[in-house]
Amino acid sequence: MLLNRQFDPHNFKIVRRITITPLDAFGYSLNDSLRQPRTFLEKSGNALHIRTARSRIRQVLLFRPGQPLLPQALAESERLLRQTDEILDARVLVNEKTATRDSVDILVYTTDIFSFTGGYELRGGPGQAIVMAGDQNFLGLGHQLSNRYQYGRDLPQTWGYEANYRVPFRNFVYAEGHYYNEFESHSGGVSVRRDFYSPSTRWAGALNLDAFNLHIVLPRDPPPCRGSYPTTACVLIPARICGWAGPFACAPTTWAMKTPGGSFWRAACSTKTTRPTRPPRPRFRLAAPTTAPAPWCWAR
Q1: Which three-class secondary structure string do you get for 188-251?
Q2: 153, 150, 113: which is closest to 133 by C-alpha?
Q3: pLDDT digits (tens, 9 = 90+) for 222-276
Q4: Residue 192 and residue 40: Cα distance in Å, rounded?
Q5: Which one of 112, 146, 162 terminates a domain?
Q6: What is the domain range of residue 171?
Q7: Number of domains within the chain
């Protein structure tokens, strides 16, 4: 690991003052202090852009005014600033003109990233698309906001929405909230985390709280085909035959069987006595599915 020894003579000196200079996203360069926005696009982009707040930059620095300057604190702060999503480049320097034997002034320069994001994706036609919009540096505070909206789908819920919002705090603590709304699927939650951001970090952790609302539909097996018998059910054999009852008609009788899918189908036996000298012939018809506590056939 290569260490930056440029500012080692200032180790453990008291930090007297910190001067932070954030620059816009277009037309500036930390390698050329004379570089300025010149074109119409650069000036227009900077007019829409919101500079990163000094309070956000101060959150990333590993030193504070009135405290000793620890070894490698300047180089680590510069690296951490470059790793953020809202800053493109950074320089953290000691003001040699004002440095004394026991105290120093720190200069911090940063250039921003144009933070607005967006997209539009067609899905088969103008009536079906996905719209995305977000901001990686909302109001210049380092907050991250993202939205995703889909419409025109061939579902009972024709639209879907997803959103995320992340907020940075001091000591490299991040809080995030998310929301998800799709057909038969809703979820949301919050999380708080702290990463191992530096080799000198002693602790890290995370806490997540999520809520899910899912509608899961299990597939059902269809009834057996005509002319075939179910493998896990009994056959429609009446336990009581509708027989001849003299001049009176036989009372309706109901049978039931269990299909392989677990549902019960019932068949009603209805008879008509047309000739008292001949037994009536039962006729069967399938009715709506019903539930039953036992898997065998019976009559009632």
Answers
A1: EEEEEEECCCCCCCCCCEEEEEEEEEECCCCCCCCCCCCCCCCCCCCCCCCCCCCCCECCECCC
A2: 150
A3: 666 565 555 444 444 343 434 433 333 333 444 444 444 444 444 443 434 344 4
A4: 42
A5: 112
A6: 116-214
A7: 3
